[in-house]
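Handout, page 2. Input:
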Amino acid sequence: MKYLLLNLWIIMFFPSSVIGQNEEPSEDLEIKGRVAWFVYTSIPEGLENPVSIMSGDKIIEVTLSKRSPSNPVKIPADGILKIVRKVENTDKPEKPSYQILAQALVPEGISKALVILVPAAKNTSGLLFQPKVKDLEIFKGGDSMYLNMTNLKVGVKLGESNILINPGENKIHKSTNNSEPTNVAVSYSYFHPEKNEWKVLSASTIVLYPTRREICIFSWDPRFKRMDYHGITLPVM
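Output:
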């Protein structure tokens, strides 16, 4: 009985360590060479999820998420990854064609890439996303990346650091403590051009872990005409 109670106590207070012992090996281990992960800022209306990604001559089904990276996709020799939709070929059903919904080029020097899918402007010829490729090799555990996809200035106060992100800019804040989790006060604000003053979006305390990287994406919400943001957590791969 005492062993049963001990096991229950371990599961309640250390669930991740117990579950981790029974997990299947990660798919990440099976992919060698250059690899990319996908996230999105928002999904265009009518887009199916999972999506089909064309890597070379292969089609891979990938489920997109807003807050965590997808399964890894091998980057082909030419560095081009496409999100496609199958189009039935009535003349030759065995040879379907594919409509390109987005196309990302991963530069040759990047071995681990994060592809951020941003909805394309409506006048873009048939494309649903404008991908932005980020190099994960320069983005270490405990670091934070900020992407400003608006026309306004964004301010981040992280602990004692004040970070200004200009419109369309992205910045990486390097962690000074890479050995253990750290509690840090954080606040986000933006500069209101009409009122000529800074407006606070939020303020809280977060934990920076050496085993993961954090991304914060700032975007403009046209429905409510306001600044919006969301976070993405990336484990150290």
